[in-house]
Amino acid sequence: xxxxxxxxxxxxxxxxxxxxxxxxxxxxxxxxxxxxxxxxxxxxxxxxxxxxxxxxxxxxxxxxxxxxxxxxxxxxxxxxxxxxxxxxxxxxxxxxxxxxxxxxxxxxxxxxxxxxxxxxxxxxxxxxxxxxxxxxxxxxxxxxxxxxxxxxxxxxxxxxxx
Length: 162
Known about the structure:
- This protein is mainly beta.
- It has one helix spanning 3-14; strands at 20-21, 31-37, 47-51, 56-62, 65-72, 75-82, 92-99, 111-116, 119-120, 124-134, 137-146, 153-161.
- Strand 10 and strand 11 (137-146) form a beta hairpin.
- The longest helix has 12 residues, at 3-14.
- 34% of the residues are buried.
């Protein structure tokens, strides 16, 4: 999806929501997504550093789910985080997150969805901490494991300022 179309989709989905953060290019506005995976972690492997505006990073909240989307050349990454059913995301630490598919209803636990290059872990276990979540942007960290709660971990962080 080209940059202009993606920005229009992000903005149209964000209309009327409490948090709408669309990509903008500015040297003063940090936009980074980083992760490092232990040997055997899935679906993310190795490590990566993405930074806007060279890499296209979009962050928005839609229907109670915080979505982080990265496009860098032919590489893509999507991380989605959600609060337990009946709650809204806010700053703080969420433990015991489990896989929540993109069209699945909210869970009794926090939800996590990590996707890259067509790969997703449907037995995900995660913890995440949101340090900032407001109209100015998002700062968060996450640890995601696939298959078992003590499996190899991917540790990541997102810093996005409009």
